[in-house]
Amino acid sequence: MRKLIYGAISIAALVLGVNGAEAQNVTMRISHQVPTGHHLHKMLEGFAADVHQRTNNSVQVQLFPAEQLHKAGENHPAVARGAVEGALSVNFQWGNTIPEMSVVVIPYFFSDLEKIKKFPTSEAAGILSKKLAEKGVHQLAWFYITRQAIFTSGKKPILALEDFKGIKIRGFGKPADFALESLGASTSAMPGPEVYNALQTGVLDAGLTDLSAAVSRRFYEVQKFATVTPALTVYFHLYVNPQWWGRLQPAQRQALDAAARKAEQDAITITEETAGRAVEELRAKGMTVKVHNAAEANVWKDAMQKPVMDVVMKAPDGPKLIELINKL
Question: Which residues contact 320 (CB under 8 A, 6 or more apart)?
Fold first, then answer.
């Protein structure tokens, strides 16, 4: 009878959540690169509050935005070696390390919202999670951040493909940059926090970011023109140190997983709402903004998609991932 009672108590604890008096209190520091005004950070604040509630404050999430803790390129090794518990990276930042991570960044390939909603729980996401595990991190969540790219410039608008020739533009890293380089642009891969100064000082002629980030990073202060087009879908993904994850109590891991799934859904709503306001906000700040119609987007698609698609197809799991995403 005593064993039955203890068993029932244990099951109840898992179902009802983490008991603060008995739970192992842990800290979850999360490093990321976006400013506090970016909609991703606002979503992360909701995620942190949800984790606190679900774990009865036994897991304390601490957010370190705008590269306060680690530079964007330092986040992966910092998490892998346990210097910080968690971090967020943009999928294309994995470059040649995991080229398949750029599958959703193939220009004009993955912009359908219904497919975007399905991605976090898809087989394609599972394949990428396994590749991240091979690199020493545990994948926790996929946060959709944009399906609208914005190309900004200061001296003249970028309206035709010929306008890319000879300009220095912020790139996303290989293989995504092949799209711009095929048009004659010179790319410079740099984290978001560095782009504003590069545009202001003329190190870059043009910027490339997600539509909402052009507002939160105040590109309108240093750029006059912008072209908005559904070129790139981008995810910030949250990953944690596997050893830290393994030391959590089962109920804590369950709570974090549940909070992550909710945050993934919240990210879709927040991203779409923020992007929906961004064009008019930029225009109100004085920018001249061109929004592509379907025919104009197709012209850019024909020029930009193939160079990146070819590279991703050569990656070991590239063809499989492209097939899976097409079936979403």
Answer: 127
Which residues have a Cβ under 8 Å from the Cβ of 183 and sit 6 or more positions away?
161, 164, 165, 303, 304
Rg (CA), the chain: 21
What DSSP letter does each residue of 131-172 carry, written as one string?
Answer: HHHHTT-EEEEEEEEES-EEEEESSS---SGGGGTT-EEEE-
Give the rounded distance of the alpha carbon of 243 from its chain centre.
24
In the block, tokens 């960044």 appear at 105
What are the helix (H) ranges across the chain? Answer: 2-16, 39-54, 75-80, 113-118, 123-134, 178-181, 192-201, 211-216, 242-247, 250-284, 294-314, 318-326
The C-alpha atoms of residue 121 and residue 248 are separated, in whole angstroms, by 23
pTM above the 0.85 mark? yes
What is the rounded average pLDDT for all residues in the chain? 92
What tokens does 17 get?
């959540």
Q: What are phi and psi of 124, to 5 degrees?
A: -60, -45
Quick one: how far is CA 108 from the chain centroid?
17
Q: Name residue 1's amino acid.
A: M
Domains of the chain: 2-14+22-99+113-144+234-274 (3.40.190.170), 149-233+276-326 (3.40.190.170)
- Cα separation, 181 vs 164, in Å, equals 9
Write the pLDDT tens digit of every residue in 266-285.
Answer: 999 999 999 999 999 999 99
Identify which of 179, 191, 210, 209 has the alpha carbon closest to the alpha carbon of residue 73: 191
Backbone φ and ψ for 208, nearest 5 degrees, come out as: -140, 120
108: which 2 tokens?
Answer: 């004009």
- 194/58 Cα distance (integer angstroms): 36
pLDDT at 9 over 80: no
